[in-house]
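Need tokens for this chain, all 569 residues.
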Amino acid sequence: MEYLKKYEQWINDSFFDADTQRELLGIKETSEIEDRFYKELEFGTGGLRGLMGAGTNRINKYTIGKATKGLGNYLINTFGISECNERGVTIGYDTRNNSKTYGEIVAGVFSAMGFKVYLYSEPRPTPQVSFSVKRNNCLAGIVITASHNPKQYNGYKVYDEFGCQLVPEVANEVIKYVNEVVDYRTIKFDSNENNIVTFDDTKEFVNAVLKQSRFSENNSKEDLSIVYTPLHGTGYIPITVGLEQDGFKKVSVVQKQTDENGDFPTVSSPNPEDRAALTLGIDLAKSVDADIVLGTDPDCDRVGVAIRVESDKYQLLSGNQIGALLMDYILSTTNLEDYVNPAVIKTIVTSDLGAEIAKKKGVNVFSTLTGFKFIGEKITQFETAKTNKNPNYDFDFLFGYEESYGYLTGSHSRDKDAVVSCILICEMAAFYKNIGISLVERLKEIYSEFGYYLDFLDSITFEGKEGSEQIDKLMYTLRNEPSPFKDIERKIDYLVGVEEDILFGALPSSNVLKFVLEDESWIAIRPSGTEPKIKVYYSIKSSDKNSAVVKLESVRQCLMKKLEKSVGL
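Here are the structure tokens for all 569 residues:
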């Protein structure tokens, strides 16, 4: 069997280090060996993401070395070795176990290939790496992170020269080069230290973020009581420094969660979307009577928020609710007359509430595929149009967001940025507290104007080789059999390419299905691009919460019956 041949090579070839071989020799189950070696860990449009460990289907020294050599070959063939040596790459990493080690390995491989390398001296946020790619005038950037995944995971995320994640057209070219690295022994791990520069530009990054400040009433800021937790991640320094410089004085930090610990010992998962991850933050908020609780994931590109609604009760906001509130606040505090074509961007699985707010204010709304790389790509398209003085595509980016707790205003980064988001969310809370209402009360006002929107996410995990086959079968069934929903108005299949954007053309093909119901509610289904999961997004529109809850349960039951019949869930 092919996987056993690969296993034998790894345990017998002296190229692979002793720790790797010792780990592999300790495996007792054949099924475990098969899962580690039945395929190469796939380099996709999001880079690499997977479990850490020895084997071709794991994140380790050799698989990230392979990705680095492939990416390096692509850059050399695209820009030339002299350009690679002059402009180089930026490399960052988060606080996960092995992230710094992997970052240093990536730096070593690039440096051995003749690249100039800017390597962060400390773990820093993912959006800061995006910022640094542009600031350093690099050809590409790499950040070692698995975002909010459990502690067993890590990943390898790639940025282009604009600080934007690779879009499919470019990623597919890089993938070809990565796949051409078939022999791990061709990877040079001995670094050329003369090509490596260590640096930290946190001060410059925070200054760039603070340019997005739009509420200058310092008395109101000083009156807002904030609790923040970095969940053992990279957000602690830039966010606390940024809040202080922006005028916030009452900032309490969850001290148990400030240490950069890749085991994430105080949470079951460092995902700020989950209430459990904010438990210590909410407990602290109750003790200090805080107005708001903020929590960021390990690489600080997502933020979760809880708002005080009673003296000892805090309500979590969903990603869509935070996005709608930010949309409303940013557009309300922006002089739109200063822009000829102001624009905002959302993804196809993001609630339409924010878009409706923007449209009412006369702001252009663009929709992209799932993934912030497509929002970043759109920002780059806008800027390119300005540079080329093309009035047909000359738009001014104001705000972009996705339902998965990722937001960006400003063009300092091309990725979602929890640092600028935290600062604007606190400014927004101070702004409304100054006029006597909370963010929850402002959200109710928005619902009364635009209708009630209830959003929900089902995330279904499929493990191993069999799980991948189940995901394929499920998408085939939903694509080709009758809809599980009764009052469907239309089905949108993004696999065939859908023209959501009349100016910039059809969206790229993507394995996503969207069922739009007669009342404008919708259900979208897609396999995750970074995890072995099917994600189901529900966006229910109704006149009130109670009727929306009833509708949500109805459509969920219809879909779950279909899934049970298809793959036996």
